[in-house]
Amino acid sequence: MTARFDAIGLVVSDMAASVTFYRRLGFAFPEGAGEQPHAEAVLPGGTRLLLDTEETVRSFHPGWRPPAGGGRASLALLCDAPEEVDALYEELTAAGHHGELPPWDAFWGQRYAVVHDPDGNGVDLFAPRAPQ
Length: 132
Description:
By secondary structure, the chain is an alpha/beta fold. It contains three helices and seven strands; from the N terminus they run βαββαβαβββ. Strand 5 and strand 6 form a beta hairpin. The chain is globular and about 55 Å long.
């Protein structure tokens, strides 16, 4: 028996807000997903992004509580070009999402930015910079 990576799961406080956020980033959640207690979007290659409401998690794990303080994980999304990093960051922050780190030219060769989803999870946006 071999375990294989299949999905990334996030617990969300507001399903509709989270589905809207991730749809802006290209995740194809089905119609009506924002009204469900569980939603899935299949990513290229077959991996899935799973969203579950806090109530759903408490239905099988009654003692679960949201973590306090800063997150320790983030989703990293590869953009096609450095300009796309800037455009997505601007779109998401203009829609009211927290911009944790504005776009900058990172020393490791990427255009890089961080925004937070509605629950404060980091979403890294990056693209290789053109050679100087």
